[in-house]
């Protein structure tokens, strides 16, 4: 009987800890954390996009797909209208892919983002642009 209580206590402690970690992952993060960089493999040049976790991004195309994973084949969670504001979550996909946007081909990774309504997902980096916080909503 005492062993059963110990197991129940340990299970409860570990369950609460993992819930707290999930909550911390989805919370909006300070823009002072975690730099990320955009690496263009095609031209073998590294472009420092200057993004930090929490930076504000603006959707530059109509009906941008917010995806569950960092792949073009991943499930689409939402369609985001042009001008939507997103928050960069500090994660960049390891692989880049080519997409065609407004008649031009772009080779870039995916960014993990959070929408203003709290949805988390991945968007192609070529479809968003860093927004100056002073210009928010313009």
Shape: globular
Biggest beta-sheet profile: 5 strands, antiparallel
The CATH homologous superfamily of the domain at 55-126 is named SH3 Domains
Residue runs with pLDDT of under 50 for 5 or more positions: 17-48
Q: Termini separation (Å)?
A: 64 Å
- Determine the mean pLDDT: 75
Provide the CATH architecture of the domain at 55-126: Roll
Under the CATH scheme, which class of the domain at 55-126? Mainly Beta
Count of DSSP E strands?
11
Query: Strand sequence of the main sheet, in spatial order?
Result: 10-9-6-3-11
Residue share in helix: 10-25%
CATH fold title of the domain at 55-126: SH3 type barrels
The SS-based structural class is: alpha+beta
**Approximate strand percentage:** 35-45%
Polypeptide structure, described:
This protein starts with a helix and ends in an 8-residue tail after the last strand. The model is unreliable at 17-48 (pLDDT under 50). It is an alpha+beta fold and 138 residues long. 18% of the residues lie in helices and 45% in strands. It has a domain at 55-126: SH3 Domains (SH3 type barrels), CATH 2.30.30. The strands form 4 sheets. The protein has a 5-stranded antiparallel beta sheet with strand order 10-9-6-3-11, with no helix packed on it. The chain is globular, with a radius of gyration of 19 Å.
């Amino acid at each position: 009987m005492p062993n059963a209580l110990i197991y129940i206590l340990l299970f409860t402690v570990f369950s609460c800890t993992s819930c707290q970690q999930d909550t911390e992952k989805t919370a909006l993060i300070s823009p002072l954390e975690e730099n990320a960089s955009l690496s263009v493999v095609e031209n073998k040049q590294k472009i420092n996009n200057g993004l930090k976790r929490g930076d504000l991004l603006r959707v530059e195309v109509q009906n941008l797909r917010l995806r569950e994973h960092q792949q073009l084949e991943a499930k689409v969670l939402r369609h985001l209208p042009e001008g939507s504001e997103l928050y960069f979550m500090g994660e960049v996909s390891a692989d880049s892919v080519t997409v065609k946007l407004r008649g031009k081909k772009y080779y870039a990774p995916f960014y993990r983002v959070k929408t203003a309504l709290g949805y988390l997902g991945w968007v192609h980096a070529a479809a968003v642009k860093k927004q100056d916080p002073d210009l928010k909503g313009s």
